[in-house]
């Protein structure tokens, strides 16, 4: 058997893994990604569908939470080797938003960054504080001598080009100057935003809300990001968004976002 030449790393906010499991399994069967970060499981650890994913060919680790949040990492044909559960820096933070593992030779941090709405207020303050904690931990990953990635739903619209109508979103937490500045500061550590790197000024979205046929009209946001450290960024072959998943019945409001990387 010929050795596989590329590896597909993907992130997908499923917006409820119980409800969206058929969509997830259909996408896995069709696209066969090698590494998948999932967000918004909205399920307890006991309710995570490990058996169904194993039957589909994926090993998994997960960090669940009843009705809210929840993250997971899947490995095609392998069991992810967990290295961290929860973002360091706040021992009182009980929200399930970060999990990290070695999968197919890559250290992957899977994250679901806080939304921060309404702003200003406590939820926005939590978002900014979480981003500061992420910066501190990300610095320990970006300089590694082996491949590392931070992937997931960042709940950050990096530029006005990453939203169908910036004026309509000007009061939202995802677009505030402090949030954008924090994201830029993260990139300045040495991370490459894979979609921005390849698509440049071309508009590409990863999220479309369920109102006014926004998905069908392609009125979306780019908030799901794949950040690669320098070792891994050199291996980018292609990147993309599987928008067809968002257009399926009973779909999540996000679409899987991926990068194909040379092995």
From TrEMBL:
It comes from the Bacteria. The keyword Transmembrane does not apply. Signal peptide: none annotated. GO terms for molecular function: double-stranded DNA 3'-5' DNA exonuclease activity. PROSITE patterns: AP_NUCLEASE_F1_1 (PS00726), AP_NUCLEASE_F1_4 (PS51435). InterPro entries: AP_endonuc_1, AP_endonuclease_F1_BS, Endo/exonu/phosph_ase_sf, Endo/exonuclease/phosphatase, ExoIII-like. SUPFAM superfamilies: DNase I-like. Its cofactor is Mg(2+). Its EC number is 3.1.11.2. It is an enzyme of class 3 (hydrolase). Residues 10-254 form the Endonuclease/exonuclease/phosphatase domain. PANTHER family: EXODEOXYRIBONUCLEASE III. This is Exodeoxyribonuclease III. It comes from Luteimonas flava. The gene is xth.
